[in-house]
């Protein structure tokens, strides 16, 4: 592939609901630009962008992938993203690298949740965007309806650039609103035709909207518009480019991906109207001077880049996907990782075509490329020169809240699984691995059940290790509510040296749930020698690891050793430790033991229409709704407190209740006493596990 300068680059991300046609649009781009000789199909698993084994098996996109194409002397970096919510992290990373977006809407399904989420993502990053309506070759596909719905949602900035020509319910051509000309398809060729009568009224309305937008670009244009002057095509296109780049106009176009109809026009429009990187701004911080550094995709400034994604593949190795923010990167450049403070020799430069690396001699500011096998570089890292170390802000990626416990099927695979998951978490920032040592479990956090299911499948197929997912153990704790006074005599005589330890102890609540126990002694007269006090404390330390009630960690206990006795020959540290352990068990069970459950603070963001359903569901889960805060865009943030045990499966249930529109986040806040029914149920469940497995795991 040729080297392209900044003004000849367009970075375009494809966004939209799952199944709207993003991958097939990317495939049509690849075919028309000559990258492929035949169009791949998602059901056949042979598209350029869906290269992963899981993607091919499941017939939908899981990873963001780049397809650089050449069109009319311009390089268009097309970034195809997954539409399903479990892989939103991929779309968020891709948007951070893009300069513009195409939101793909299925002409038959119309506006879907994913369409609205894509729009919100573009708003967040202030991305110029097109709306592309796919599947126009399908019966019942309605461009007019999509235009109407989008206008109702987002106002009059929607500007149809093309109108469909239909004959006998078939999509046969289009009307270009800018040039006011009709075009029909004859095989692969496009021929001019008359604008059908039924299109003329709509054409006039769309044309007036565009002309108003053109007039608003300057005072001179406004005067000419009101003076009844007409604008030349070149003036219209220049003004529309300005409008598209600043987001005051959102062009709407349409086509058929499988028939490649409307795709030429879309590619032409990308080149004509979408911004090159030189029209975008980017700034970082110079870590030497602490000043703001305006990189702004300027090729004449010091070299700097941002790692927006990492690919770790057992077959092709590791590639760091970069966006060059300033300067010109060349083969064998030495770059400084500003985050890890390590110098990296970049070796060869690549551009990725799906998972196929293609070598290039240099990458100009604004371009997307890839670096192979960087040892100390991860997603989100900034690369620059040591003389000008520029650090860029990291992309905001969604936090995973769906949690499952995982166990290796073969205990010998523990290290392999850990290494594989490490690679996968480097690649996917919405996947998190947590070792919960206190509850003896390892946890996987993802964006949803499907996300975690794919992780398990990848571990098996790519890394040849098997894991089982299970419901995570809730981190219950045990404490006491009353006082107790107990004694225990540990005595063993088995010939020769015996064992003797005798303690009298008081147990009471300490009211400090952050600490397992507080130990003090009030022994008088040397009934228990001082040298055995550490053994008593050690006995307590062991006892609190697994409580007597349900084998959960103990918190908030005050233990006082006030009396006892010893034997000058048979007493030992071990004997006093054992006496303490038994005394603790007895004293704990006599002091009104209770189970404490973790409580989370949860925030659920939903459209107004769903607040009743969500609040009702939170109440069913033993949640306490604390209040609601209105948000922009007709949404509410419901704040509540809820037991963590009730959050299992909440992601799926919330999506089901709200049609995928609901989002939530939570964090642990405190422990509270569990209701008696929950306590009884949990103790019984633990006892059954011990009986079955010989362990509480």
Give the CATH class of the largest domain.
Alpha Beta
Tell me the CATH superfamily of the largest domain: P-loop containing nucleotide triphosphate hydrolases
Tally of individual domains: 5
Radius of gyration: 33 Å
Please give the alpha-carbon distance between the first and last residues: 56 Å
The CATH topology of the largest domain corresponds to Rossmann fold
Biggest beta sheet summary: 8 strands, antiparallel
Record the strand order, biggest sheet: 18-17-23-14-15-22-19-20
Helix content: 25-40%
Give the helix tally: 16
Specify the structural class: alpha+beta
Count of β-strands:
37
In the predicted model, the low-confidence regions spanning at least 5 consecutive residues are none
The CATH architecture classification of the largest domain is 3-Layer(aba) Sandwich
Please tell me what the overall shape is.
elongated
- Nearest-integer average pLDDT: 92
Percent of residues in beta strands?
25-35%
Describe this structure in words.
With 697 residues, the protein is α+β, with helices and mostly antiparallel strands. The chain folds into 5 domains: 6-279, Rossmann fold; 283-391, Elongation Factor Tu (Ef-tu), domain 3; 402-470, Elongation Factor G (Translational Gtpase), domain 3 (Alpha-Beta Plaits, 2-Layer Sandwich); 478-591, Ribosomal Protein S5, domain 2; 595-678, Alpha-Beta Plaits (2-Layer Sandwich). It contains 16 helices and 37 strands. An 8-stranded antiparallel beta sheet has the order 18-17-23-14-15-22-19-20. A 7-stranded mixed beta sheet has the order 2-3-1-4-5-11-6, with helices on both faces. Strand 35 and strand 36 form a beta hairpin. Helix 6 (197-215) crosses helix 8.
């Amino acid at each position: 592939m040729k080297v392209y300068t900044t003004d000849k680059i367009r970075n375009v991300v494809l966004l939209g609901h799952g199944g709207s046609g993003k991958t097939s649009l990317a495939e049509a781009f690849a075919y028309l630009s000559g990258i492929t000789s035949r169009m791949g199909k998602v059901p056949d698993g042979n598209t350029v962008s869906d290269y992963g084994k899981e993607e091919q098996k499941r017939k939908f996109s899981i990873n963001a992938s780049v397809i650089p194409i050449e069109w009319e002397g311009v390089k268009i970096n097309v970034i195809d993203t997954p539409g399903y919510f479990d892989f939103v992290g991929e779309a968020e990373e891709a948007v951070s690298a893009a300069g513009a977006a195409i939101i793909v809407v299925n002409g038959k399904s119309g506006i879907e949740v994913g369409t609205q989420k894509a729009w919100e993502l573009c708003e967040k990053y202030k991305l110029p965007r097109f709306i592309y309506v796919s599947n126009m070759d399908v019966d019942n596909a309605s461009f007019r309806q999509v235009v109407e719905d989008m206008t109702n949602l987002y106002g009059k900035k929607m500007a149809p650039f093309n109108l469909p020509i239909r004959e006998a319910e078939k999509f046969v051509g289009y009307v270009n609103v800018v040039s006011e000309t009709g075009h029909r398809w004859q095989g692969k060729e496009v021929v001019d035709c008359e604008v059908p009568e039924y299109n003329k009224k709509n054409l006039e309305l769309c044309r007036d909207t565009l002309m108003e937008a053109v007039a608003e670009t300057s005072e001179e244009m406004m005067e000419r518009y009101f003076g009844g002057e007409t604008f030349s095509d070149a003036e219209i296109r220049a003004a529309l480019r300005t409008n598209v780049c600043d987001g005051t106009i959102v062009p709407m176009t349409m086509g058929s991906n499988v028939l490649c109809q409307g795709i030429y026009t879309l590619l032409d429009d990308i080149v004509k109207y979408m911004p090159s990187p030189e029209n975008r701004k980017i700034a970082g911080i110079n870590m030497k001077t602490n000043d703001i550094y305006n990189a702004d995709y300027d090729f004449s400034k010091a070299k700097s880049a941002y790692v927006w994604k990492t690919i770790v593949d057992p077959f092709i190795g590791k590639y760091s996907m970069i966006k060059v923010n300033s300067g010109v990167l060349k083969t064998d450049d030495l770059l400084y990782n500003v985050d890890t403070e390590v110098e990296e020799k970049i070796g060869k430069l690549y551009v990725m075509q799906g998972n196929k690396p293609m070598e290039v001699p240099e990458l100009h500011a604004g371009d997307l490329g890839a670096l192979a096998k960087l040892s100390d570089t991860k997603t989100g890292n900034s690369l620059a020169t040591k003389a000008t170390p520029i650090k860029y802000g990291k992309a905001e990626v969604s936090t995973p809240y769906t949690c499952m416990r995982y166990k290796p099927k073969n205990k010998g695979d523990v290290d392999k699984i850990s290494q594989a998951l490490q690679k996968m978490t480097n690649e996917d920032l919405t996947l998190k691995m947590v070792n919960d040592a206190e509850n003896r479990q390892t946890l996987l956090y993802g964006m949803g059940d499907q996300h975690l299911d794919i992780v398990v499948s990848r571990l098996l197929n790519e890394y040849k290790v098997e894991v089982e997912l299970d419901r995570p153990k809730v981190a219950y704790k045990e404490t006491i509510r009353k006082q107790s006074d107990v004694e225990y005599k540990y005595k063993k005589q088995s010939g020769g040296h015996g064992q003797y330890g005798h303690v009298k102890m008081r147990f009471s609540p300490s009211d400090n749930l952050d600490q397992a126990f507080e130990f003090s002694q009030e022994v008088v007269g040397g009934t228990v020698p001082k040298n055995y006090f550490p053994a008593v404390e050690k006995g307590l330390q062991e006892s609190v690891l697994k409580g007597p009630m349900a084998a959960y960690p103990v918190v908030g206990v005050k233990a006082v050793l006030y009396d006892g006795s010893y034997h000058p020959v048979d007493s030992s540290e071990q004997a006093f430790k054992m006496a303490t352990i038994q005394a603790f068990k007895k004293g704990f069970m006599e002091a009104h033991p209770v189970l404490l459950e973790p409580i989370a603070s949860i925030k659920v963001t939903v459209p107004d229409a769903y607040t009743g359903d969500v609040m009702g569901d939170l109440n069913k889960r033993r949640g306490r709704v604390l209040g609601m805060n209105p948000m922009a865009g007709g949404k509410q943030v419901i704040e509540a407190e809820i037991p963590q045990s009730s959050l299992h499966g909440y992601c799926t249930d919330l999506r089901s209740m709200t049609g995928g529109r609901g989002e939530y986040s939570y964090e642990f806040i405190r422990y509270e006493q569990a209701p008696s029914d929950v306590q009884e149920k949990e103790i019984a469940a633990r006892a059954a596990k011990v009986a079955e497995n010989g362990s509480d795991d």
